Amino acid sequence: MASSAGEPESSAGEPEPAAGGRQGEDEVVPERPRDDEDPGRSLWRGLVTLAILVVLAASLLLAVPGLRGVGRVIAHMRPGWVAAGVGLEILSCLGYVLAFLQVFERVPLRLGARVALSELAFGAAVSIGGAGSVAVGAWLLVERGGDPTRVAERSAVLFLLTSAINVFTLILAGLGLYLGVLPGPRNALLSLVPAIVGVLVLALFLALPGISDRLARRRGEGRVRSLLLELATTIRMTEAILFRLDWRIVGAIAYLWCDIAVLAVCFAAAGHVPPLAVIVLAYQIGYMSNVIPVPGGIGVLDGSMVGMFALYGIAATATTAATIVYHAISLWIPAMWGTAAFVILRRSRNEPIALRPPRRVRAQRRRERRARRRAHRIGV
C-alpha cells in the first residue's frame, strides 16, 4: 500500500492473512491473551463501573441541596438541542472512523469501522486513555494477522494525528481570543498562555524527527537506536497526513470539533451559550484531567470543566448542567455503539480478511469504470 508517507506498498500496517484465512509459516501469529487479559472483560467491567458511577452522580444531584438547581436546569433542557447533541456525537464517532480508515488505508471498510468504534468504546468505558484505546484497536488487527510492528506504527500515527488536531485547535482558539478575533475575555493567562503552550508542543513535534535522527546516529545498534528511528518515522508519517491535501482529514477534524459542538448545544439546551473560544479552551484544558484513571472521567472531567468555565466567568449552575448532559452523551453514544461493534468483532475473529487494493489502484479502477460508462453512453 502506498502509505501517507510515501513508503513502499509492503510497509502497510494492515493485516495480511494467508490464503484461506490461515496463518502462513512466516507470519507472526499473535499469542491469544489469557481470559483475565481479554480486553472484552475489561470493557464489560468498565461499562458496569460506568453505570454505577452515573447512578451515584444522579443520586448526588437529587440528594445534595446545592445541586438541586442543576437538576432543575437539566429537567427543563430543550429536547431539540439535546437531540442535536446526540446527532453531533454520532458525527464525531463517524469522524474517528474516517480518520482510522485514512491511516489504515487497506483495511476493509466494515472491519475498520468496527475496530475504530471499539477503540471509542474502550476510551469511554475503560480508564486506559487515548493511547490505550488505540492499542486495543492494534490488538484487534494483530489478532487477525496484522504485522505487529507495522500495526503499532500506524496506531501511533492515528494517535498523533488526532492529538495534532487538538493542538491546532488550542492554538487557534487561544490566539483568536487574545487578539480579539473571537469574542470572549482577553485575559492573557486564559488565552495567550494556552496558545503558547500549543505552539511549543507543535514546534517540538515538528523538530522531533531531526532530533531523533541525530541521536540515533550517535548510538550503536540496539533497542534505543531502533526506537529513535521508529519515532522519527512515525512523526514523519503523521506530518505527511496532516499537511497533504486529502479530504479525509475531515475525519480527524470532525472527531474533535463535533464533540466540542455537543458541549455547545448542551449549553444552548440549558439556555446560556458562552463564547465559542471559551467553550473550546475550557474543553481542551478540562480534558487534561483524563490522565486521572477514572472510568469515563466521571466526576473528574465534569469538575475540571466546571472549574475552567468558572475561571472564564460562566455561571456555575448552567455550566454544571450543560457539562453533565454533554458528558452523558459523549460517554454513552460511543460506549454502546462501540461495544456492539466489539461484540461483532469477537464473534468474527476467525474469519479471513480480504484487504482492499492500494488507494492508487482503486483510483485507477474508478477512472477506468468512468471511461467505460462514457464510452457506453456514446455508443463506442
Describe the sheet with the most strands: none
Rg over C-alpha atoms, rounded to the nearest angstrom:
23 Å
Uncertain residue ranges:
1-36
User: Termini distance?
Assistant: 34 Å
Mean pLDDT: 81
Helix coverage percent: 55-70%
Instruction: Describe the global form.
Output: globular
Count of all domains: 1
Count of extended strands: 0
Query: What is the H-and-E element order?
Result: HHHHHHHHHHHHH
Enumerate how many helices there are, as a single number. 13
Could you say which structural class the secondary elements and strand pairing correspond to?
mainly alpha
What share of residues are in beta strands? Answer: under 5%
Helix and strand arrangement:
Layout: H1 39-63, H2 68-75, H3 79-103, H4 109-125, H5 129-143, H6 148-178, H7 192-217, H8 223-242, H9 249-270, H10 276-286, H11 300-311, H12 316-347, H13 359-377
Helix pairs in contact: 1-12, 2-12, 3-4, 3-9, 3-12, 4-5, 4-12, 5-6, 6-7, 6-8, 6-9, 6-10, 7-8, 9-12, 10-11, 11-12
